[in-house]
Amino acid sequence: MNQAQPTATWRNVKSPTPMIAQYLEVKEGQQNALLFYRMGDFYEMFFEDAEIGANVLGITLTKRGKSDGDDIPMCGVPVHAVDGYLARLIKAGHRVALCEQVEDPATQKQRGGKGPLKRAVVRVFTPGTLTEDELLSPRQHNYLAAIGRSGETMAVAWADMSTGDFMVKEIPEAGLETLIAQLDPSELVVPNNFARPDWLDAAAVCLSEQSPALFDSTSGRQTLESFYQVGSLDGFGDFSRAMLSAAGALLCYLETTQIGNMPPLSRLQTIVDAAHMEIDPATRRSLELTRTLAGESRGSLLHAIDRTVTAAGGRLLTERLAAPLGNAESIIDRHELVAWFLQHMDMCEQIRVKMVGLSDMERIMARLSMGHGGPRDLSGLANGLASASEIVVIATNVRALADPPQLRALFDAIMVPAPLADELGPALADDLPLLARDGGLVRRGYDLALDEIRDLRDESRRLIAALQQRYSAETNVASLKIKHNNVLGYHIDVRASHAEKLMQAEEFIHRQTTAQTVRFTTTELAEMERDMASASERALAKELEIFEQLRSTVLQQAMAITKAAQALAVIDVASASAVLAATTNQCRPDIRTTVDFYIEKGRHPVIESMLDVSTPFIPNDCDLGEDNNLWLLTGPNMAGKSTFLRQNAHIAIMAQAGMYVPAETAVIGIVDRIFSRVGAADDLARGRSTFMVEMIETAAILNLA
């Protein structure tokens, strides 16, 4: 889908106010995004942005000031609830530029400035550049992809900012649709002169068109070398010009949206065709791997077999189903890990209990690296690392001589950053604020200097309470209160009927009169307020300093934490596969490099999961080998032809994804491609009947098989 763009009639404004003039200046650089302009506790939109925002968000469209005699449309959303509004706008296909105040009044005064404080765009939110949990699906990757080309060669680079994954693959043009379907990116970056195929216009992906200069392969190499701070990419592998074009364009796009605050992407990894089973888009749809034909999760293969208990594990399982392995040795390694957990089911269940609620450390690291993280992220990381080390202890207690070789590497990866939990835990308070700037994040007793400042601040509060009692007694006004607001600060508040008593006393200084109350201050109260404000500011500054120290400590071990999180995801998927195998009577497939495909008493994993216990699935066999490589299946409607087709395709995909399969026996030679067409429908938009669609898809299978 192409993203909706605001129009540009706002440029015709005449004689704007200083604030609107500043807004228009910032908007000039963000013509393709809705501008969220920070004003106090609100982000405000003006002109066409306001009309679009109010319509999509269902909020009130109001007005502020005039432009050439006409009212300027305006709407706003509160800062504290901005994530929810961002999610809705991004889902609707919009980009959102966040404009913040970038100087304080003191700095403005020093430069002799007048008018509004300086503001600038600090980040552009797009569907493929999100890191916030509130804006993401926890169990799915959020890929940003870019298409590069050099001559007749094409490549696709993709990255998940929330986890740091960064990959690139060279492909023929005919394979582009298949790869995009496998990745299911949220956003696709293409040159604005890109000849888009018909299928891309129909794909559910946000297209971001950029200047062709962004896709230059020479500039792409330089961009990658600069990002990784290396003199040459030779140590990273061999990248074609098309790969450099795609990967370089993706990084350049990130630089424009993240405003210099680049995500910590992992080392660029090259993906080769032989590494994975090819599944074209039509096959993915008909097999309903992650979504049904109706677009729902329930009823898909993923929904039926997913027993993972962590977000990272859920993402890894989705990734494995989308791209099953094509290498027998790697597949067998995954099966060995599942078999090990099956041998130790009591331990497996203990580990899964520990993993429930485990924090998403990959995404936490991305937020902390980009400065978006808060105290709760540090706490989640500390708790996650502590739980992870407990998992290793549980698993180590049952280790035997026949442990899978990769098991030790997984445990080692988890334990490397584990001591960090002992550094973070004692520093963080039990009840943590969302943002570090809110204060109250450091546990009392962790830092003596901070405790002393806090004591001074708290003592000032006690003194103000005592002062209220004294003033009440001296004036004989029992209802006298010392209150605080953002305009007057601390002040003495009395009912209007008692105001005359304080007016006659020299000690009390009149500040404000309202319909019901009269407000005063005193020199003593002003001094106390100054002392308390100073202590509060110093306490907050100290807490922010400690937070940055803790964040820096975490970032020094970013790579180790990411590897630990990935190891935990592997353990989650393997243990979940073991539980699925044990509870649904699955067998370990015999993976071979031959062309054998023998399934004895196979079952459909999705249908079986939906059947009542009293209605068992009737198993059936499938034997496709070198001497028996073609089956022609016939029968009436609802006879089970589609079920049989999907069932055997699902078994092959599950086996090569590294899972056990729903059968009594399964011998599977490596499947390099799967074709399946079930439930074709007409395509009237392109003048194709149902029969025509079926013939075209059959021709595609015959040509590619």
The Cα radius of gyration reads 31 Å
What composes the largest sheet? 6 strands, mixed
Strand fraction equals: 15-25%
Q: How many alpha or pi helices?
A: 24
Shape: globular
Helical content band: 40-55%
Strand order, largest beta sheet: 3-4-2-1-5-6
Q: How many extended strands?
A: 22
Mean pLDDT: 89
Indicate the low-confidence ranges by residue numbers: none
Structural class category: alpha/beta
Summarize the model shown.
With 705 residues, the protein is α/β, with parallel strands linked by helices. The strands form 5 sheets. The protein has a 6-stranded mixed β-sheet, sandwiched between helices. Strands 11-10-7-8-9-12 form a 6-stranded mixed β-sheet. Strands 14-15-17-16 form a 4-stranded antiparallel β-sheet.
Describe this structure in words.
The chain is an alpha/beta fold and 705 residues long. 44% of the residues lie in helices and 17% in strands. It contains 24 helices and 22 strands. The strands form five sheets. Strands 3-4-2-1-5-6 form a six-stranded mixed sheet, with helices on both faces. Strands 11-10-7-8-9-12 form a six-stranded mixed sheet. Strand 10, helix 6 (198-202) and strand 11 (206-210) form a beta-alpha-beta unit. The protein is globular. 37% of the residues are buried.
